[in-house]
Amino acid sequence: MPLIVDLVNGWASTPRARAGGRAPASVTELLHAHDLPAELADLLDDDGELERVADLVHRVFADPAPARTSAVLSSLLAASQVRPALTVDDDGELRAAWDVPDPRKALLAAAAVTLRSELAARDPARFGTCAARGCGDVYVDTSPGARRRFCSVTCQNRERIAAFRRRRAAGAG
After folding, report:
1. How many CB atoms lie within 10 A of CB 5?
2. Coil, helix or strand for 141?
3. 32-62 pLDDT, tens per residue?
4. What residues pair up with 139 in beta bridges, in sequence order?
5. Is the pLDDT of residue 173 over 60?
6. pLDDT digit string, tens, across residues 92-145
7. CA 131 to the chain's CA centroid
8. What are the distances in angstroms from CA 25 to CA 38, 49, 113, 134?
9. What's the pLDDT score for residue 45?
10. What is the DSSP track for 126-169?
11. Which is nearest to 127 in space by CA: 51, 68, 49, 78?
12. CB 139 within 8 A of CB 153
């Protein structure tokens, strides 16, 4: 799941725009951060496709209402044309797999299947976007209390300091 969060935060239009138009992350950095083979860079090197998929996936995090999350994710699964399948491994054992007829839709399919699995195991309210001004990054709340509102401690601290300064300025005026 951290890979999907990094994909959305690195390439989706909304988080980048709210951060002042920051440039997309590097594919190499993404692969290295998640210990993925460098050979995947060729498959992921299309910034337009990364941005398109990240924008589609961002919608899952932006609205935690279960009915809308279900509709958005179902449309992603349908758009990717991913289908459950069975394969036989080298030992002759059956293995669950996913079939994606169009290789260009593999990234969307992988993200949609991962989100489907995660949302089946977690409350959709644990998926969210950062509450900090100037930040649109997404997160998955894994805290015991399920009260996370910020993508990082940095954003949380920035908002606390701003709130403190507003209170102090209001009291001085």
Report:
1. 17
2. coil
3. 888 877 777 776 766 678 889 999 999 999 9
4. 128
5. no
6. 999 999 999 998 898 899 999 999 999 999 888 899 999 998 899 999 999 888
7. 16
8. 15, 13, 23, 18
9. 66
10. GEEE--STT---EEE--STT-----SSHHHHHHHHHHHHHHHHH
11. 68
12. no
Domain positions in the chain:
2-124
Q: Can you give the length of the chain in residues? A: 173
Tell me how far apart the terminal alpha carbons of the chain are, to the nearest angstrom. Answer: 47
- Cα 17–Cα 124–Cα 96 angle in degrees, nearest 5: 105
Task: For residue 131, give both structure tokens.
Answer: 């509450």
Q: Which two tokens stand for residue 86?
A: 């069975």
What's the CA gap between 25 and 10, in Å, rounded? 5
State the pLDDT at residue 49. 83
- Spacing of C-alpha 77 from chain mean position: 15
CA pair distance 53, 76, nearest whole angstrom: 9
Between CA 82 and CA 77 the distance in angstroms is 6
Q: Residue 139: how many CA atoms within 13 Å on its side-chain side?
A: 21
Q: What confidence score (pLDDT) does residue 76 get?
A: 96
Q: Which of 18-22, 80-84, 103-107 has the lowest mean pLDDT?
A: 18-22
In this structure, is the dihedral angle defined by the CA atoms of residues 100, 104, 106 and 108, taken in order, positive or negative?
negative
